[in-house]
Amino acid sequence: MNAARFDAEPHSYDALVLLGFGGPEGQADVIPFLRNVTRGRGIPDERLEEVAHHYRHFGGVSPINEQNRQLQGALAAEFARRGIDLPVLWGNRNWAPYLPDALRDASERGFENVLVLPTSAFASYSGCRQYQENLDDALAQLHAEGRTFKADKVRPYFDHPGFLEPFIEGTRRAIAELLVSDPTLDAQRDVRVMFTTHSVPTSYSGAFGPDHSALDGQGAYEAQHRAAAAEIARAACPGVAWDLAYQSRSGPPTQPWLEPDINDALAELPGQGVRAVVIVPVGFVSDHMEVLWDLDTEALETCEAHGLDAVRVPTPGVAPTYVAGLVDLVLERRDGTPTVERASRTELGPWFDVCGVGCCGTQEAVSAS
Fold it and tell me: Which of 103, 133, 201, 252 is the most buried (most CB within 10 A)?
């Protein structure tokens, strides 16, 4: 078995390819998009329509494509600001522009060696390995066409300062907002910070990531989220209690998934003496559908039903600190930065550049927005 490893060799990249999940951009796109997401799982359109209403509520348009257009522009601007000539292309896994087309466009422009930046910070099947599988499939198509083309992927960046700082600043502001709106609140007594991420089947969680001495028996997916949450809480609100909850599960009721569900966790807070909650979507990099619907709609409704004041912290989006951090990650891989010099803010990181065989292994994909 090949072990996960760091890549400390410098590379000469022709371009950066931003790799997103993709999303529908009109009512007619919704079901075809969901078919792409669930391809190979045999889910009938009637069941897909149960998820489709989230998108239909917003006119059939997922915000994720526009968010990636903005991120593509922000990355290009940051490269230009630093005097770096590195074009930024964009491709998706599940909707246009598709990754194979983006790589083919890169090849036709004369690029032969690109670095791929997924819009996912954590190690998991759908958040890391499946992106690599999609990349491998796209490269196979190009090679079959006789094109000489190589592509590397940026490492998971769950504890990179550029990813964490927007959450730290947002959490700090959210707590201050709650205390201003209700001066009777005491942060350490009355406020809870609720971190949330996409749930996955429990049978998958132990397989996420290679062996790592700091995991303490956890799968990398859960361990990385707990490490990131602990660092955000330490920096933003020392002394304020926090929890990690999960959202957006999509499997059958008989299949165990990571818990607690955020709505169940929120419902229990008043019984613990909590009067206000800060919701931190630490598992997501932009305010896409699973943030707008599952948090801004369902979770905030749960808070209102249980008498909880609530503030939802923004995701990094195109925050300057986040964009600058992504560019730092690109340069880290381009320059072959030694491991000891790589930025990370937890004992788990920095994570590996190249996954080992069997890393994040599972038998089916987990959907994300």
Answer: 103
Same fold yes or no, 15-157+320-341 and 161-312? yes
Residue 6 backbone dihedrals phi, psi, to 5 degrees: -90, 150
CA pair distance 67, 186, nearest whole angstrom? 36
Q: Which residues contact 3 (CB under 8 A, 6 or more apart)?
A: 210, 356
Report how far residue 94's alpha carbon sits from residue 99's, in angstroms, rounded to the nearest whole number.
9
Q: Which residues lie closer than 8 Å to 133 by C-beta, 6 or more apart? A: none
Nearest to 235 by CA among 164, 337, 294, 183: 164
Rounded Cα distance, 43 and 132, in Å: 24
CA distance 113 to 180: 52
- Strands of 191-198's sheet, edge to edge? 242-247, 191-198, 276-280, 309-312
% of the chain residues with pLDDT over 70:
92
Contact 245, 361 (CB under 8 A): no
* Structural fold of domain 15-157+320-341: Rossmann fold (3.40.50)
Q: 161-312 has which fold?
A: Rossmann fold (3.40.50)
Note whether 266 and 303 are within 8 A (CB).
yes
Residue type, 70: Q
User: Which burial class, exposed, middle or buried, applies to 110 when counting CB atoms under 10 A from its CB (0-12, 13-18, 19+)?
Assistant: exposed
Q: Residue 362: which pLDDT band, with cuts at 50, 70 and 90?
A: very low
**How far apart, in whole angstroms, are the C-alpha atoms of residue 313 and residue 279?**
6
In angstroms, the Cα distances linking 213 to 55, 216, 219 are 41, 7, 11
- What residue type is assigned to position 129 of the chain? R
Q: Which of 102, 66, 101 is nearest to 87 (CA)?
A: 102
**Strands of the sheet with 150-153, listed across from one edge:** 88-92, 15-20, 113-118, 150-153
Say how far apart CA 236 and CA 118 lie, in whole Å.
Answer: 27
Mean pLDDT score, 75-103: 97
- The domains of the chain are located at 15-157+320-341, 161-312
